[in-house]
Amino acid sequence: MRIPDSYRLPVILALALHMLAGLALLVVWPVSDPVKFKPVPTHVKASLVQVKSKAKPVAPRKQVKKKPKPEKKKTVAKKPPPQKSDQQKKKEIALKKKKEKAARDKKEAERKAREKAAAEKKAKQQREKELKRQRELKQQELQREQELASLLESEEAFEQEQQQAATDHELAMGYADVIRQQVIPHWSRPPSARNGMVTVLQISLVPTGEVVDVNVIKSSGDAAFDDSTLRAVRRAGRFPELQQLEPRVFDRYFRKLQIEFKPEDLIR
């Protein structure tokens, strides 16, 4: 029979008191005296008494499942590493040195390769720079030659132009004399003409040599003298020799021709 938890403590205390009382009787009771037992009633009435305890009733504990303990790993004692022989140690040292040397050689080769690439790049840049400089020099030289040739051509053209202008002027002066010679026979000097008088006429001509217009651009101061010069040109009327001139010469010298008239019968 299971005793409830709430009665367990009082029962334990009662049993403990009874045991202590029995021990006390054994110790104190004299041995010599015979123990007189009183008649014990054959029927004993027992009852359970609930003992009030100040202790709080303990709540029934929940059954907690215990986690299984992990199995301990069996520790195996490590065997000490085998001792290397001197020959093996020497081989390992030699191999290590060989690897270190190979690494150094690789770094040195990479360094030399970088230096070589940098030197080649620099040399290439210098070659390109030199080629560019040479091209620029050739271009400048060619430009100077072209400028010089152009200058020579311009100078030559200028000289030719000057020569041509001189030739044209000389030719024009010759034809101007021809025109003066043709006008003089048609000029009658008025009685009012005096030395020192000068009349300048401008004659407008066409390539066929015909006179299309004539005007006084500088008067002598005497109207009769000026009118006589105008009549002389109009009477001449045409100068066919001008047809032999090139258009360049005609346009420059004879499109508008100026003639001076003086009483001394000199036409300049």
Could you characterize what this model shows?
By secondary structure, the protein is mainly alpha-helical. The protein has a domain at 123-268: Fusion Protein Consisting Of Minor Coat Protein, Glycine Rich Linker, Tola, And A His Tag, Chain: A, Domain 2. 54% of the residues lie in helices and 8% in strands. It has 4 helices and 3 strands. Strands 2-1-3 form a 3-stranded antiparallel sheet. The mean pLDDT is 80.
Distance between the termini: 178 Å
List segments where confidence is low: pLDDT < 50 over at least 5 consecutive residues.
none
Helix content: 40-55%
Question: How many helices in DSSP terms?
Answer: 4
Name the average pLDDT.
80
> Structural class per helix/strand content?
mainly alpha
- CATH third-tier fold name of the domain at 123-268: Fusion Protein Consisting Of Minor Coat Protein, Glycine Rich Linker, Tola, And A His Tag, Chain: A, Domain 2
Shape: rod-shaped
CATH architecture type of the domain at 123-268: 2-Layer Sandwich
Instruction: Give the helices and strands as they follow along the chain.
Output: HHEEHHE
Strand content: 5-15%
Major beta-sheet overview = 3 strands, antiparallel
Write down the Rg.
78 Å
Task: Give me the count of strands.
Answer: 3
Strands across the major sheet, in which order? 2-1-3
Mind telling me the CATH class of the domain at 123-268? Alpha Beta
Features of the shown structure:
268 residues, mainly alpha, 8% strand, Fusion Protein Consisting Of Minor Coat Protein, Glycine Rich Linker, Tola, And A His Tag, Chain: A, Domain 2, 4 helices
